[in-house]
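re: the backbone from monday

yeah here it is again, tokenized this time
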């Protein structure tokens, strides 16, 4: 269903009069951080035999591909990173980065399919995610090589201690993202240029900084409980069948957004952060480009 939802949107683009380009990345380096976390704990679990291959791409290389796509004539572009690895090789790179001997357990594909069916009975969204990652791990997912950043370098960089300045900056950005979620609707809309989808930006900003802070161990466990409640609520609002929740009208009036504001206020109280209106993303250095605008 995750792939179907994306393709349904692509169909809408094809049928529209909009100028567009669709990029289909094989996967992201940010997703590969899961392997590093498992390696740190001493064992990596793979779906199937781990022989299938992929070439994920770094976000910075993908961003450059997006800029090139804005200037090019191709409407649909497959992109991957510069090197192709099997899933087992990715696991081994993760163990090398953390300095531990490889311990890899392969979970049979049939067992994962059974788990998908069982999970869907209780949580359809989680079941679809599990189905997606199972499919990705049991087939080749490759695309033409793009960029220069390698997964080995990425894993090594994640293992380097970024220092207290990085931690402070990330926590500050997470705090601002949570405070934006807590604002009244008019204040939320005022945080962004009028051509962006405000609801999407609010959720994406929070998801990004929660992932960064959590993966680096910057968030205390007691606060993480409150932040994960926000994350779970956003997951529950997601999906093609709930697209109406992501409009400005829903932001202003739907109970799901009011509940989200309360969860954000709870997290602010738990963290001891000062409430109030944070700087806008543009004031913090983010740049938003209207659709159809070519970069200078």
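seq for it, each position gets an aa:
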């Amino acid at each position: 269903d995750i792939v179907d939802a994306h393709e349904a949107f692509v169909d809408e683009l094809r049928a529209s009069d909009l100028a567009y380009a669709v990029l289909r990345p094989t996967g992201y380096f940010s997703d590969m951080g899961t392997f590093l976390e498992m390696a740190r704990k001493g064992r990596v679990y793979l779906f199937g035999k781990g022989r299938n291959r992929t070439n994920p791409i770094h976000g910075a290389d993908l961003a450059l591909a997006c800029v090139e796509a804005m200037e090019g004539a191709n409407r649909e572009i497959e992109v991957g990173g510069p090197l192709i690895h099997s899933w087992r090789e990715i696991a081994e790179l993760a163990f090398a980065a953390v300095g531990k001997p490889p311990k890899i357990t392969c979970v049979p594909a049939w067992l994962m399919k059974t788990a998908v069916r069982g999970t869907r009975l209780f949580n359809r969204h989680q079941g679809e995610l599990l189905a997606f990652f199972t499919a990705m791990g049991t087939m080749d997912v490759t695309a033409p090589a793009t960029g220069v950043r390698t997964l080995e370098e990425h894993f090594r960089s994640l293992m380097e201690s970024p220092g207290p300045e990085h931690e402070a900056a990330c926590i500050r950005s997470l705090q601002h993202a949570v405070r934006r979620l807590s604002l009244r609707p008019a204040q939320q809309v005022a945080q962004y240029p009028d051509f962006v989808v405000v609801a999407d930006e609010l959720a994406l900003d929070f998801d990004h900084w929660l992932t960064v802070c959590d993966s680096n161990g910057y968030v205390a466990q007691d606060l993480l409980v409150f932040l994960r409640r926000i994350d779970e609520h956003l997951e529950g609002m997601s999906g093609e069948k709930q697209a109406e929740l992501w409009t400005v009208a829903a932001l202003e009036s739907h109970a799901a957004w009011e509940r989200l504001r309360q969860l954000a206020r709870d997290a602010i109280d738990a963290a001891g952060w000062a409430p109030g209106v944070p700087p806008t993303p543009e004031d913090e250095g983010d740049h938003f480009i209207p659709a159809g605008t070519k970069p200078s």
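The chain has a mean pLDDT of 88. The first helix runs from residue 2 to 15.
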